[in-house]
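Human: Cast an eye over this sequence-structure pair and say how the chain folds.
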Amino acid sequence: MNNPFEGKEIWFGVGSQDLYGEEALRQVAEQSTEIVDALNKTGKIPAKLVLKPTLKSSDGIKQFMTEASSNPNCIGVVAWMHTFSPAKMWIRGLEVLTKPLLQLNTQHHFEIPWDTIDMDFMNLNQSAHGDREFGYILTRLGIARKIVVGHYTDPEVAEKIGTWARACAGWDAAQTMRVMRWGDNMRNVAVTEGDKTEAERVFGTQVNTWAVNELVSYVDKVKDDQVKALIEDYKAKYDVAPELLDARYDSLFTAAKEEAGMVNMMNDYGATAAVDNFEDLGTLSQLPGVGPQRLPSEYGFGFSAEGDWKTSMLVRIGAVMGAGLEGGASLMEDYSYNFVPGHEEIMGSHMLEVSPSVGSIAKPKLEIHPLGIGNKADPVRLVFSVAPHKDAIVVSMADMRERFRLVMNVVDVVEPEGSLKVLPTARALWKPQPSLKVSAECWLRSGAAHHTCMTTSVGREAWEDFARMAGVELATIDESTTPEQFEKDLMMEEIYHRLENQH
């Protein structure tokens, strides 16, 4: 996967005014430099913080916000008021800002200098004053932002800015994403449908369809050396079934050739997410298995099945947000419950496409098994169990007519209690928070999809930040959720978002 943070910047704007004189402004600039340098040195913020000249006037603020909005390398803006910065100066600038915003509520000094504090110190170090003025105008203008409070040396401050920066990268990826659909949605399925025009308006993501037989032409053009290189990669990373290297080598060769064709076609069209449908395979000889499983883990691409382009989007966003962290993002689907008292769990899986990017208990096995749908040759696929992970995320996107709804469940991935030795698919077993019964009831109440994106790299905060940037509804099911309050929250969210969409 290409590093999504390479060359990307977070612009750091410091608010002040001319009232305090040149000496005070010099100290503002020096202390701001110290703060930004310290935050960058933590290594917790994946994109570089870039300090810009102190903002002291309405014209200067508007120019700063205009340049931030138009610069493709800037993925977000941090604003901090070192002194008092009259908020009416910020109105014109804030109204042209199109990049995500973080309001940092910090200060240079850690402790009040009890014995020496005077009015010169007070005039220079009044972030608590300035940030409240700034907060007022942001709220009055209805500008969504993340708020981080604390001294800049507090590790939690850098961690929260870093999580938000990851969400900024996910939002940036959504804005430039092209989802390649090979064929249409699975017939008669409701939840995989959605408004692709609205998706481009809300997320900036282009969703279009290409004929499956154009993919076939790409597969046919793949050269043998590219296929053989992929097979060597399989052998290095997976436990390859002996038959695939002997009697059924042709099937392995075909699977690798399909992967190469998919990647080549996506790269040629600038696509970063894709989706296929087992009901529309053209003259492909296999339903692609190992290739789609590797799209998130090896290339950082999104992938989903059965024409579900919305989940493909989420997997790409999750892969970008989690780049460089342990774990990853993958298509997941709720399959089966375990109702044994004390072991109430959900098994997620899919017929072929769960990605090893989310982590596995043991080295994934590359195997070939029959598949009763698609009417094609036996597909090659990776078989593994997802490794235990506390506070993983499953998130879905559903089209609710006039808006998109994200629903997120915090889950604890656990190790299967049995061998699953005859189950020929990748799978994950998790305990949903707060319990299986509450989680399932709330999931059903929300209308959330059966397809989800699972992330084991980034947690709930990154998805919360992303939803705020996108301005979309996010319903969260976690350890504190109750069905009664969840239902009330859905009702209030529906009222709010319908009123917002009337604007």
